[in-house]
Amino acid sequence: MTMSMQPYGIQSMLKEGYRHLSGLDEAVIKNIEACKELSTITRTSLGPNGMNKMVINHLDKLFVTNDAATIVNELEIQHPAAKILVLAAKAQQEEIGDGANLTISFAGELLQNAEELIRMGLHPSEIICGYNKAIIKVVEVLEQLVESGSETMDVRSKDEVVSRMRAAVASKQFGQEEIICSLVADACIQVCPKNPTNFNVDNVRVAKLLGGGLHNSCIVRGMVLKSDAVGSIKRMEKAKVAVFAGGVDTTATETKGTVLIHSAEQLENYAKTEEAKVEELIKAVAESGAKVIVSGGSVGEMALHFCERYKIMVLKISSKFELRRFCRAAGAVAHLKLSRPSPDDLGYVDSISVEEIGGVTVTIARNEQGGNSISTVVLRGSTDSILDDLERAVDDGVNTYKAMCRDSRIVPGAAATEIELAQRLKEYANAETGLDKYAISKYAESFEFVPKTLADNAGLNAMEIIASLYTGHGSGNTKLGIDLEEGACKDVSETKVWDLFATKLFALKYASDAACTVLRVDQIIMAKQAGGPRRDAAAAAGAGAEED
Amino acid sequence: RRKALNLFFVDSDLSSSKMSVRVLNPNAEVLNKTAALHMTINAAKGLQDVLKSNLGPKGTIKMLVGGSGDIKLTKDGNTLLKEMQIQNPTAIMIARTAVAQDDISGDGTTSTVIFIGELMKQSERCIDEGMHPRVLVDGFEIAKRATLQFLDTFKTPVVMGDEPDKEILKMVARTTLRTKLYEGLADQLTDIVVNSVLCIRKPEEPIDLFMVEIMHMRHKFDVDTRLVEGLVLDHGSRHPDMKRRAENCHILTCNVSLEYEKSEINAGFFYSNAEQREAMVTAERRSVDERVKKIIELKNKVCAGNDNSFVIINQKGIDPPSLDLLAREGIIALRRAKRRNMERLVLACGGEAVNSVDDLTPDSLGWAGLVYEHVLGEEKYTFVEQVKNPHSCTILIKGPNDHTIAQIKDAVRDGLRSVKNTLEDECVVLGAGAFEVAARQHLINEVKKTVKGRAQLGVEAFANALLVVPKTLAENAGLDTQDVIISLTSEHDKGNVVGVSLVDGEPIDPQLAGIFDNYSVKRQLINSGPVIASQLLLVDEVIRAGRNMRKPT
Fold this sequence. Notes:
Helix content of chain B: 40-55%
Protein name (chain B): T-complex protein 1 subunit zeta
Largest interface: A-B, 72 and 69 residues
InterPro entries (chain B): Chap_CCT_zeta, Chaperone_TCP-1, Chaperonin_TCP-1_CS, Cpn60/GroEL/TCP-1, GroEL-like_apical_dom_sf, GROEL-like_equatorial_sf, TCP-1-like_intermed_sf, TCP-1_chaperonin
Distance between the termini of chain A: 60 Å
Strand content of chain B: 15-25%
GO molecular function (chain B): ATP binding; ATP hydrolysis activity; ATP-dependent protein folding chaperone; unfolded protein binding
CATH class of the domain at 10-147 and 415-526 in chain A: Mainly Alpha
Strand order of the largest sheet of chain A: 6-12-11-7-9-10
Structural class of chain B: alpha+beta
Strand order of the largest sheet of chain B: 8-14-13-9-11-12
Number of helices of chain B: 18
Family (chain B): Belongs to the TCP-1 chaperonin family.
CATH architecture of the domain at 10-147 and 415-526 in chain A: Orthogonal Bundle
CATH topology of the domain at 10-147 and 415-526 in chain A: GROEL, domain 1
Radius of gyration of chain A: 30 Å
Number of strands of chain B: 20
Largest sheet of chain A: 6 strands, mixed
Radius of gyration of chain B: 30 Å
Oligomer: heterodimer
Function (chain B): Molecular chaperone; assists the folding of proteins upon ATP hydrolysis. Known to play a role, in vitro, in the folding of actin and tubulin.
Helix content of chain A: 40-55%
Distance between the termini of chain B: 21 Å
Shape of chain B: elongated
Number of helices of chain A: 18
């Protein structure tokens, strides 16, 4: 009954259900442990021989993938510290589109090593200081490791593109990288604009069609729409295209209209004038030379009838974004209302036809000649999850292409860069005086997890590999990496495993940023979990945004 | 439902007072006398403990996890107090003072909380020795007035004429920013913050910080944050064929509806054949089309014979048919701009905001050298840059994730305030704990002697409480607090005004190190701290009706 003893400290001041964690043991170490857990999950998926994960998300959707970005996205991480790593991975995914796994795993490794330092008695702020020095040095060394001659590249040369893309794609689809790379490279080169830095990943589309196998996949110069034509005309060659964003139908006023009819004749006449009006419009379109009408909205029965009569093929694309892409593919200018289009506004396609692939009716619009800005990769596979995984590999490839258009510099892959960085950093640490030294050398050690994981995942003896890598690098061979097929160390210029400089740079920077952020936090105040279906609401909001 | 009563002269009989409330409300809980006092003191100390580690450039970061799992990282006392939902009545009172501190001066929240905490702590010692709270309170009042007077003699005046001393502004901004962000980023933001305030500053007019737009993009790294001389809008054109980039642009800032609006009354069309309907369709749009045509006429007037571009930024909507007409003329049109952005645009680009298209003249147009759109995922941003002598600008914050951006945003806001304060105060105060130590020496050596009676102890408690700032600064930097305080006070006794260096704990001259605090921040701190502490000390009874004050266990 008495309240003489109030609980002391912050806990007494917070609302019910709030949690407060502070200090080294409670906050920092716990945070590190959570991050470690996360990185152990993603780590086994690193590299070409990485294992797949089966993730079933809150909507009971099954994902079979080794793409770290997808895994962490679907895992719905709750722990705040682990979430920081996830955010870093997301930033990497948005910025470059590849290397999310490296970001998380490396940050996890950095934190694990930081924990050892903390247990040794170092203060987190000293570790942060050391890590910051290390990342500055890493950026410096990384720039020295850039393969000479790679600063300039011909983004339209397929060989050069494939050589830079291979490592990124191989880490997702090992063994099939040749097929995918060549598909992606073709698709990208085709849509690459005059100024390669303006390359837009949106211009490479992916159409997933169930059935067949990867070998049946192909590239379509143009668009593949998963829908049927509206009318009965299913094929058109060398046709001009008119695009109407507002739909093909009779016009209507914004204000509600009422038809005023006094007699039976008027009723008859009304229908006739209506008909005449639509015919007039469709005729105007037909006279302008257009043989295909693409509508963004509904297609009226009567309009369709006249289109058939004037031998015009009608397509309906209800998504606004898809319609814009179609405009780009055909080089057309969209009109809002059904009216006579000027010749400049008409687009052109070589062929447009409705086909059936694997039981799905698709409309394929091709544009073989130049001036085309959209290409589609048609992926074939036996199950949905395989298709999804292939799509992610293609996305990574396309993103890599975008990254290389901006910065074509490459560094040796297959863990060669990591070992070289580790080696140089260790030298740097030894030259350093003060407590930073320990943190920097731990940072260097963290790099070892890359060759270790690559070797582990491939079933090789990690320690042997690392030792021989160090020996090789010590004797000056900066390009010595692991050849996973032979299980030995080999010069990467022979195995041709190259990583993009930008991918690596951003991944390492984001990782150490995230690690330092986690280390900086010494108190956590957690609110009570809000109830209700959060995720669904967020998803619905996202869908709403898509609809514009 | 909570009540902290400021009753002092109440019947001292414990049971009877308890009884009287019980009679009124059987569920009420009562805390009496010492228990009440200790509760408030404990709460103040508890809050101090939480915020203590935030103070100063070496303070640590707190992570706040919201109900929906969203993360916020902060070092800012104000943010922390806002996000942390405090329930204890005493803590709420202190938190409110801190929030008031932020409203007035934009900084010093953490200092306020720890200063109040320390005042309570010092008082606790005296009260335990049997002193009456009222005497302490009297002492506080004397000490407060003396300290404020001392502050006016201690401050360093700065002349802020037409050409303010940029260096001193930078030092003040840097001092504030470094307490919120890590050093490298803080130094970079210092220039941005100072330049932006100087950009919007107009002689003879109060500074309106809203004229600095703070825009954020989730992109690249935190060090890519920059100052845009011009404006960044967080939306783009809504037409696929509009230009994405234009140079030498005339800018029309307007608030004119360019979309069809339904009439208020319930109207309907009656027609009996399709032709009539077509006529209605055109008639319906005529008024909107005419407005668009007027704009196009103006465009043709100013852009004839040169390759200048024309940009419309409208506060109201522009519907697709109008957008289409404008796009065909090569005009870039943005719709639904923020009201504040309309003000900023006029300041940045010149011209004037028009509310009607009837009397458009080329004089009402603004000018920008470059307008372009930047797309980030699904977000679109429009940059209006290369403007002539702007009076509005944008701080573009970049960062890889939302919590970094939020952290920078809070810091930038505080930085802007500190620069504004300096410009308005026309003076600064030496930082790094120098003022606190000097004020304490002044109180102990001069003021205390002039006070008669037991109030002396109150002055002493106040003086000692001031030391909490340098103490905490040193503690957070991992230094020995006692050593630091002793070396500081002995330097001050020699007549040297010094602060503490957080690198090695040695005394430094804040003037040389460039550590300056805002005068108004310190003033507000000294004003509000003792007031709230006195109020809390004079509470002798806490009555709470309804639920239990503690959590049910």
